[in-house]
Amino acid sequence: MMKAFTLGALLVACTLAGGQAAATYDGAAKVFRIDGGNVSYVFGVNPRGELQQLYWGGRLGAKDQFSQAVPMPEWASFDSSYTNTPQEYAGWGAGLFVEPALKVTFADGNRDLVLHYEAETATANGFEVVLKDIQRAVYVTLHYSIDPATGILARSATIENRESQPVTIEQAAAAAWALPPAHYSLNYLTGRWAGEWTLTQETLNPGARVIESRRGTTGHQANPWFAIQAGAPSEDAGEVWFGALAWSGSWRITVEQDQLDEVRVTGGFNPFDFGYVLHPGEKLETPVFYGGYSAHGLGGASRLLHHFEIAHILPHRIGTGEDAAPKPRPVIYNSWEATEFNVTEAGQMALAEKAAALGVDRFVMDDGWFGQRKDDHAGLGDWYVNAEKFPHGLKPLIDKVHALGMDFGLWVEPEMVNPNSDLYRRHPDWVLNFPGRPRSELRNQLVLNLARPDVRDYVLDFLDKLLTENDIAFLKWDYNRNWSEPGWDQLPAAEQKKVYVAFTQNLYGILEELHKRHPKVELESCSGGGGRVDLGILKYADEVWPSDNTDPFDRLTQQDGFTYAYTPQVMMAWVTDSPHWLNLRATSLTYRMLSSMEGSLGIGADIGKWNDEETATAKRLIAAYHPVQATIVQGDLYRLISPLNGSEFSATQTVNHDKSQSVVFLYIHSTQEGRLFPRLKLKGLDPAAEYALTSIEGKARAGTPAAASGAWWMNHGLDMDPGFRGDFKAAAFRLDRK
Ligand code: DGJ
Q1: What is the pLDDT of residues 683-737, one digit of tens each?
Q2: Is 336 in the pocket of ligand 1 (CB under 6 A)?
Q3: Residues 646-663: pLDDT tens digits?
Q4: pLDDT value at residue 13
Q5: Tens of pLDDT along 489-508?
Q6: Which residue's CA is the closest to the ligand 1 atom numbered 1?
Q7: Which of 334, 365, 443, 478 should be mutated for ligand 1, with most atoms under 8 A from CB?
Q8: Using CA atoms, how far apart are residues 109 and 608, in angstroms rounded to an integer?
């Protein structure tokens, strides 16, 4: 691939690896243009020296050119040109009334910051553009890179203090995105424990909508993802601009429609209680804010994100180079709902035997195996094997699991401590706290201050030892509370708020180091369900636990919401017992299995109590899942009928990348007035290819062809047998190209 770059008056193309991208700088007009996939992103330096956004949307003609950026005018005497002009990264100063990207206080009390373009460099896949305050030596390097396949941009900033005095950063975004005035709708994800992944949709109105976590971690209540659609939300059609922030600490995304109806989306560290002192010569790196564009509705947007996550975010466990990919998740068994804390060697071995007989690939022992952990009042922090429960250590259980043909996974919650633990008795100063103030407990536990070097070392060492001494293939890394009293009394008072950055950086550092030392060990990010799911943690986590709510009906809407932002590859879904503990709803095992098969399948039921029929059903469906799993979790996802708003029916379909296989799931909530399942027109198939239809579960209507063209399945559609009626029913089919 050609790669060339010259500054100045020349227009120079820089063709990126992959061949589908280009980055050009027009030195005469001072315009930067980045193209990738079906997307162009353009910004320039206006005559005042500000970096101004010019365009973000569908890919433009290769020869199209932009003139130099023209600042927006002042609006009467109330809104300055500075505030009206959509800047790539605006400092708070000079009469800025919209959300700033960067706000600082200098040592002499000056709080005015106006960032002007200084220099640029070409990088392998985009640009680095340096900005500097008009007087002071605060430098900001903006990093831009584009994915040639999806057109998803990665943006972040490095802030550097070259003054002779410290500078305190009070607000630092990763990036700000802008859209011109139009009618838009906003989509984002909200929730609570056991109720994560609610797709919230609203018209974008003047003012600001703040999506955030102040909790020290990502949070269940909102997720760092947004999608803005031109006009009303639509699954299949229309322009959508979307973004996701790669940060697992407190974060904030502010979506504003400003005084001139321009839309700005600014996201990064949450400025609430933020204060990062940069000493002379120091730098602060922001997280990455990814942004993409699709002309094919919310469905098109999520398909791009899924591709991007699989290709560029998730750990790649198989293949090398261009072929490297995440490994389809093993079908797991997890003991939590069966035993809770009451784990024993004999009990786990019995469950392992049953799990192996079902065709499970990985046996995971959950909470309760360590320290004095009889319930949630004690033990966290003491990561030695409980000798009463496992008198010979973990080895006999692990050996047994291996002998049964499965690999072994283990639960840990490394960042937490119970006050009733040896660790806390030894190091009461290791937790987040303000000395002399009460320490608020949640689930009887406190948060270890991972920002402290000694705590970081302790956590890394015990995990390293655990993984070195035991043949463990997988860690379920849990995190069961949010922060309170976030003091870090090792540091001077003015610097303690660094904890918001250093904690998360150390978490990532530990995960990185563990990966180096134990490259085969896989990881799940769990935080009492889906409290820590974001593109930051997904660099290290092979999968996530979306919710403690395993009710198969609730899961359909949760899984629907989840997939707007995240690929089903990481979406673990366990089949658990009926009636379900949360909603007391009774459902058939088939319905539960098919609900979980939409994602990465697991079993979390008390399988020791299953009868022969249940065992046979699970075994049959696990066997049917394996050969289509890659299509389900890594294919193109089409949400054919949404389960939202109490829908009587719902359906999803996935198509693998060479369109040789497709899988369809159909669910009935409750049949009303005898209504039959609607004819289902499939999507994404090759119209000219011939596809054979095979039932995984359920019957198509008599007369349905055994095989037909993609055009037939997409235009005529699939009809279900009239017997497919009732409450909580499910069916699934696969289509294979002949
Ligand atoms: C919360 C997790 O989400 C559950 O799956 C389980 O691991 C418990 N913690 C164990 O304490």
Answers
A1: 999 999 999 999 999 999 999 999 999 999 999 999 999 999 999 999 999 999 9
A2: yes
A3: 999 999 999 999 999 999
A4: 39
A5: 999 999 999 999 999 999 99
A6: 528
A7: 478
A8: 68
Residue 473 has pLDDT above 50, yes or no: yes
Nearest residue by C-alpha to atom 10 in ligand 1: 367
The pair of structure tokens assigned to 387 is 């000798």
- Domain range summary for the chain, segments of one domain joined by +: 11-60+79-313, 329-633, 637-737
CA distance 7 to 22: 16
CA-nearest residue, atom 4 of ligand 1? 528
Residue 18: the pLDDT is 42
Q: Active site residue: 367, 478, 551, 560, which one?
A: 478
Supply the DSSP symbol for 494: G
| CB 195 less than 6 A from any atom of ligand 1 | no
**pLDDT > 70 in the chain, percent:** 97
The per-residue pLDDT for 124 is 84
Q: Cα(673)–Cα(719) distance, rounded to whole angstroms?
A: 18
| For the CA of 526, the nearest atom of ligand 1 | 3
| 439 has a pLDDT exceeding 50 | yes
Pocket test for ligand 1, best of 332, 527, 548 (most atoms within 8 A of CB): 548
Spatial separation of the C-alpha atoms in residues 404 and 38, rounded to whole Å: 49
List, in sequence order, every residue forming a beta bridge with 146; answer none if it has no partner.
153
CA dihedral angle for residue 635, residue 639, residue 643, residue 649, rounded to 10 degrees: -100
Cβ neighbourhood burial of 18 (10 Å; 0-12, 13-18, 19+): middle
Copy the structure tokens of residue 120.
């640029």
Q: Which of 35, 534, 548, 560 is catalytic?
A: 548
What single-letter amino acid sits at 639? R
Assign a CATH topology to domain 11-60+79-313.
Beta-galactosidase; Chain A, domain 5 (2.70.98)
Neighbours of 198 (CB within 10 A): 18
Look at residue 10 in the predicted model and tell me its pLDDT: 29
Is 409 touching ligand 1 by the criterion CB < 6 Å? no
Confirm whether pTM is higher than 0.90.
Answer: yes
Tell whether the torsion through CA atoms of 256, 257, 260 and 266 is positive or negative.
positive
- For the chain, the average pLDDT equals 96
For domain 329-633, give the CATH superfamily.
Aldolase class I (3.20.20.70)
Note the CATH architecture for domain 637-737.
Sandwich (2.60)
Asked whether 529 lines ligand 1 (CB < 6 A), one says yes
The answer to whether the CB of 379 is under 6 A from ligand 1 is no
Residue ranges with strand state E in 31-107: 31-36, 39-45, 51-58, 102-106
User: For residue 141, how far is its CA from the centre of ligand 1 (angstroms)?
Assistant: 41
Q: Is the CB of 369 under 6 A from ligand 1?
A: no
Residue 401, pLDDT score = 98
Is 551 among the catalytic positions?
Answer: no
Chain length of the chain: 738
